[in-house]
């Protein structure tokens, strides 16, 4: 039987079958490029350009009502036409400037726009046709299944963070003689060694910490022998079905080197926590794991992400183990595998979940490492050059690396209108009406098309909030890495920490505050120009003012993100409704359901009101299929039909059973994946604007209280007041 290509499966194979024929594909490309070229370079008057722009946008709105991938491709085609026409006009018609200041600032904006245009095109290549690969069943005879070493690298994380991952890994449904769990402890801690001995897993150490996580894994590779290696960050708790979902494709494709599954986070990241968007707005990582990785998979360009992945040992060893030349060892390893002609795969089924970074400063530090590492790869092992990669793979890798160069372009966008408002510099040498006729269609089409493609995984405008917060901090390390890729070191992302009180992170917010002040000055200058200063360019003034007001909305949300909310729970609460039972000391029992859980307790919905004293002992029963597990607990609160219970100290067997009934359930994370509804653009910008207003209030409240404290110190006043609460 002829095997189906792993990169042409499911619905995608039906949609792309026609284009497998070389003559038809060549003709389609020639016709497309001819039509595209003619539409892009044909000169038009203002009226003709407006007519074309309106007609094409109406056509896009009509196409957007249709379902299916081909409608999305048609919208991409229209977007490419409009955006290419805008960029051609920008380069050929708007850069004739006599004033050196105008030319310098204009070139800066043009570079930022070219960067955004290239990223837009490469993004379309990545996301136009996600593969949507499905799992392949394993052979019925489990004795034929391969051996697997599970690696759980750790360095300075608390044992409380790691223990659930270890117990869940022990619960993976795989023949016990074919799986071995290894805790790779680069902290060389006695409590970890004792824990590993008690639960029956290998505690692996080395006598140095060279090359950080990559070196830790490579040392373990030299001392283990299983055919495959599954890697989990120490806070990523695998479900029992992880290997059965991931391993089927290895038997189907002998050249498959790696299968990657999503990183899913059951705790709120700093943006979600500080902006109160957890569960209502797709977070920063959902676009990558929900869409981009699935799109990469079509082109055999899935990236290794360092965790929630299975690798074939022989192929990883062939490339010298996990890459150590850069601080993004995972993506670099995947690049090396692809250069040797090996395949990778992505399954968009969350089968593990972990902790997001707790603080914005920690989040920024993590992104700095990613940005530095991708810039290092771009510099020392550029995917555009060298052997082994096909062109779609090169483009996918280049887009991933270009993404982390957004720092300077984002800073330019946040300050570009100030060039005219403050200095009268024309960064685009054209009338306001011509800018409207060319630029607005480009912006509207790109947003409409991306909204259709990304809708469930990224809401419009939110990427600008994320990038504006990080832009200054990303810009510096990427620039340094491009100049000297050997500079910089690996930093471990802290997980499982607490934030004892609310505070305004002025250190992280200082770049946003500076940009905010500049844009406020720009608004004042613009209003001044609207009076008698610039009567001949009122439309230009209004255009730049509108841009500045938009920047203020984005920067206000950035300020709100820097107001750290408290994080007092060491064990995060996770919503989960499953059957349970309460067993009381007097012998009677009560059937009920959980509504949330953590490693320390449960929230329970009761069928009727129940009065229970705080601290009253009981047992909670949870179920795994037909198997019942009981856990000793005490009542923490009782309110009508709801009670909360806290677990008493559990044995390792009970802890393992608790993990099996909760975080290791095969269905728990997949049911929450990609369920965000599509939201209209005006509602999204309205939501960001409301968050921005909160940010302004938080900023003023912070500086009001800070000024009061400083005044009291200078005048020898009384004790400082308690930290101000976050404004609602």
How would you characterize the overall build of this protein?
The protein is α+β, with helices and mostly antiparallel strands and 728 residues long. The chain contains 23 helices and 19 strands. The chain has a 7-stranded mixed sheet with strand order 3-2-1-4-8-6-9, sandwiched between helices. It has a 6-stranded antiparallel beta barrel with strand order 14-15-16-19-18-17. It has a 3-stranded mixed sheet with strand order 5-10-7. The radius of gyration is 28 Å and the shape is globular. The N terminus and C terminus are likely disordered. This is Cellulose synthase catalytic subunit [UDP-forming].
Strand content: 5-15%
CATH topology title of the domain at 147-324 and 343-357: Spore Coat Polysaccharide Biosynthesis Protein SpsA, Chain A
- Rg, rounded, reads 28 Å
Put simply, the count of helices is: 23
**Can you summarize the main beta sheet?**
7 strands, mixed
DSSP helix fraction = 40-55%
The parts where pLDDT drops under 50 for at least 5 residues are 1-5, 8-15, 719-728
Q: Could you name the CATH homologous superfamily of the domain at 147-324 and 343-357?
A: Spore Coat Polysaccharide Biosynthesis Protein SpsA, Chain A
Tell me how many strands there are: 19
Query: Outline, from the CA principal axes?
Result: globular
Sequence of strands across the biggest β-sheet: 3-2-1-4-8-6-9
Structural class: alpha+beta
- Report the mean per-residue pLDDT as an integer: 89
Specify the CATH class of the domain at 147-324 and 343-357.
Alpha Beta
CATH architecture of the domain at 147-324 and 343-357: Alpha-Beta Complex
Give the distance, in angstroms, between the N- and C-terminal Cα atoms: 64 Å
């Amino acid at each position: 039987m002829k095997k189906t290509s792993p990169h042409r499966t499911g619905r995608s194979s039906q949609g792309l079958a026609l284009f497998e024929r070389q003559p038809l594909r060549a003709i389609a490309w020639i016709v497309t490029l001819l039509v595209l070229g003619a539409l892009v370079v044909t000169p038009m008057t203002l009226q003709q350009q407006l007519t074309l722009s309106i007609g094409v946008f109406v056509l896009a709105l009509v196409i957007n009502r249709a379902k299916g991938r081909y409608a999305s491709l048609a919208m991409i085609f229209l977007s490419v036409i409009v955006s290419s026409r805008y960029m051609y006009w920008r380069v050929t018609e708007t850069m004739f400037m006599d004033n050196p200041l105008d030319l310098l600032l204009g070139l800066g904006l043009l570079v930022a726009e070219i960067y955004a245009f290239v990223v837009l095109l490469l993004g379309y290549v990545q996301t136009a046709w996600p593969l949507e690969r499905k799992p392949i069943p394993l052979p019925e005879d489990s004795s034929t299944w391969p051996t697997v070493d599970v690696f759980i690298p750790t360095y300075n994380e608390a044992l409380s963070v790691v223990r659930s991952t270890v117990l869940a890994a022990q619960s993976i449904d795989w023949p016990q003689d074919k799986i071995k769990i290894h805790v790779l402890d680069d902290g060389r801690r006695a409590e970890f060694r004792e824990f590993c001995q008690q639960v029956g897993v290998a505690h692996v150490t080395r006598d140095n910490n060279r090359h950080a996580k990559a070196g830790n894994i490579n040392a373990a590779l030299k001392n283990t022998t299983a055919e495959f290696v599954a890697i989990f960050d120490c806070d990523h708790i695998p479900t029992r079905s992880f290997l059965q979902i991931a391993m089927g494709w290895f038997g189907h494709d002998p050249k498959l080197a790696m299968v990657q599954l999503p990183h899913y986070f059951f705790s709120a990241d700093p943006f979600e926590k500080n902006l109160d968007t957890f569960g209502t707005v797709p977070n920063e990582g959902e676009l990558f794991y929900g869409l981009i990785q699935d799109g990469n998979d079509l082109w055999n360009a899935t990236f290794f992400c360092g965790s929630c992945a299975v690798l074939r040992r022989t192929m990883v060893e062939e490339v010298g183990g996990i890459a150590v030349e850069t601080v993004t060892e995972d993506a670099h390893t995947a690049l090396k595998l692809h250069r040797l002609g090996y395949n990778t795969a992505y399954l968009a089924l969350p089968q593990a979940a972990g902790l997001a970074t707790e603080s914005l400063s920690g989040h920024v530090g993590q992104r700095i490492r990613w940005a530095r590492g991708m810039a290092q790869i771009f510099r020392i092992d550029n995917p555009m050059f060298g052997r082994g990669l096909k062109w779609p793979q090169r483009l996918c890798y280049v887009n991933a690396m270009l993404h982390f160069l957004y720092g300077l372009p984002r800073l330019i966008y946040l300050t570009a209108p100030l060039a005219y408002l403050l200095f009268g510099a024309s960064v685009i040498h054209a009338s306001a009406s011509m800018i409207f006729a060319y630029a607005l269609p480009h912006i509207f089409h790109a947003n409409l098309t991306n909204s259709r493609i990304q809708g469930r995984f990224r809401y419009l405008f939110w990427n600008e909030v994320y990038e504006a917060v990080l832009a200054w901090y990303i810009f510096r390390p990427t620039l340094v890495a491009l100049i000297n890729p050997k500079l910089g070191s690996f930093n471990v992302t802290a997980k499982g920490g607490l934030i004892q009180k609310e505070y305004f992170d002025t250190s992280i917010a200082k770049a946003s505050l500076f940009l905010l002040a500049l844009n406020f000055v720009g608004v004042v200058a613009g209003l001044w120009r609207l009076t008698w200063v610039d009567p001949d360019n009122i439309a230009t003034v209004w255009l730049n003012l509108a841009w500045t007001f938009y920047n203020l909305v984005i920067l206000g949300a950035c300020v709100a993100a820097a107001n750290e909310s408290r994080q007092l729970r060491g064990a995060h609460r996770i919503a989960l409704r499953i059957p349970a039972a309460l067993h009381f000391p007097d012998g009677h029992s009560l059937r009920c359901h959980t509504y949330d859980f953590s490693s320390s307790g449960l929230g329970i919905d009761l069928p009727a009101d129940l009065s229970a004293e705080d601290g009253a002992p009981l047992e909670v029963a949870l179920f795994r299929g037909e198997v019942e597990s009981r856990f000793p607990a005490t009542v923490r609160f009782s309110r009508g039909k709801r009670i909360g219970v806290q677990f008493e100290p559990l044995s390792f067997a009970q802890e393992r059973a608790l993990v099996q009934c909760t975080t290791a359930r095969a269905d728990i994370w997949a049911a929450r994946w990609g369920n965000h509804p599509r939201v209209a653009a005006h509602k999204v910008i309205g939501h960001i604007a409301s968050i921005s207003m909160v940010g302004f209030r938080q900023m003023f409240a912070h500086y009001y209280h800070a000024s009061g404290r400083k005044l009291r110190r200078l005048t020898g006043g009384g004790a400082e007041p308690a930290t101000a609460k976050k404004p609602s």
